[in-house]
């Protein structure tokens, strides 16, 4: 349950573990965390273009925790919104909410763009 305050502790522990991995393997050039956000457009969600207060809190906490530990973090909820509401892509599988082929393709292109930016 995302409203459980222990979720924020889990985020802190996750960031700490990622930091430990980076220190354990210093040859890792980069660690990137992407947070997708809600998937599954509706007329109401497309009209509002906003996260629920609960999901906004999780996103902000993730951003803060990752920044505090020097981990690259990219919240993609607005991008997923645009892909669904503006471009008509389905970002989730119809029956279970996992990423669709469109979502995987979008995230792969996003990662490629981020990695290319580091090379240039």
Question: Care to give the gist of this entry?
Answer:
The chain has 120 residues and is mainly alpha-helical.
Question: Can you give a write-up of this model?
Answer:
The protein has 120 residues and is mainly alpha-helical. Helices cover 58% and strands 7% of the residues. The protein contains five helices and two strands. It has helices at 6-24, 43-48, 53-68, 77-86, 101-119; strands at residues 32-35, 72-75. A two-stranded parallel ribbon has the order 1-2. The longest helix is centred in the first third of the chain and has 19 residues, at 6-24. The termini are far apart. The mean pLDDT is 86.
- Count of helical stretches: 5
Structural class: mainly alpha
Q: What proportion of the residues form beta strands (DSSP E)?
A: 5-15%
Residue-averaged pLDDT = 86
Can you list the strand order of the major beta sheet? 1-2
As a percent range, the share of helical residues equals 55-70%
Detail the poorly predicted runs: none
Q: Report the order of strands and helices.
A: HEHHEHH
The number of strands is 2
